[in-house]
Design goal:
The protein contains four helices and no strands. By secondary structure, the chain is mainly alpha-helical. It has one domain. It is elongated and about 60 Å long. The relative contact order is 0.11.
């Protein structure tokens, strides 16, 4: 779990115990209130797993294939 996720859990617990508001928690975590509500909902449903980013350990949808990366590197090395 990253330090950012760990900090969010602390903030979620403070919101739960009504020590701070969601608005303040969102401000402290530098995200929108709406996003904090989403994280809060996920945390309530799934527990600690709900705070962890869902793509952890997976390849990005926007990433390029390894074969394409190898072709680009090969072309680059030929020109230099």
């Amino acid at each position: 779990m990253s330090s950012q996720e760990h900090d969010r859990i602390k903030l979620l617990e403070e919101v739960k115990s009504r020590k701070i508001t969601i608005k303040k928690a969102a401000e402290l975590s530098e995200i929108s209130e709406r996003q904090f509500y989403r994280i809060k909902s996920s945390y309530e449903k799934e527990g600690l797993i709900g705070v962890v980013h869902k793509l952890r350990g997976r390849r990005s949808n926007r990433g390029f294939s390894q074969s394409l990366k190898n072709k680009v590197i090969k072309i680059y090395n030929l020109k230099n």
